[in-house]
Amino acid sequence: MSSEAIEWFDVPSVLGRRAAALLGLSKVPIVELDASHRPLILAHLLALSAHDRRMRFSYALGDGAIAKYVANMDFESDSVFGIFGKDDHLLGMVHLGVLTPPPESKAPKGAELGLSLNADMRGHGLGTLLFKRALQRARNEGVERLFIFTLMDNDAMLAIAHKLDMRISTADGQCEAHLDIRPSSTTSVIREFVDEHLADLDHLFKASLNQFKRWTEELTP
Hints:
seven-stranded mixed β-sheet
């Protein structure tokens, strides 16, 4: 599948391309997920190969463990973002999980990022876009340090970490990358507000269009 299949419906053309660029609008619409999306998240993760599960979770989780992971996702404290295809299937997602420090800890407020993409959607820069969207949320939520924990042979994740200028350390086959985040600003809050609401609008347009196509197909003799 080409990344063109998941680009904006027509929101950037309504705003004007220059306005969309100035607002920092992502190349593709990235939608915030909630508890109602658990079935789509589960289907997306279960479709990953054993190798891809190892890359995502640092070891190849079985179906039962993945189901438990999805069931335990806390959409109140964490943030989850996804990219949808025209058929409303989840093509990729990023999970921004807030880290709970020990009592009386003076460590900076931290969060961890976990990313997964369908195999046919890789190589289009979508992973970097998902990470940047999560970074935007982390900044506006007061997260001070962002972490990625992955394997040394996860070249795709490490490439994203390098793009984001994260500091990387390795030990015993594992990699830890972290990024110190600057405080939020009025501009960063406005950009997230615009990006979030336009992505929701785009998703609604596409879902309505898909439903209309299904109706016309059913009515066609």
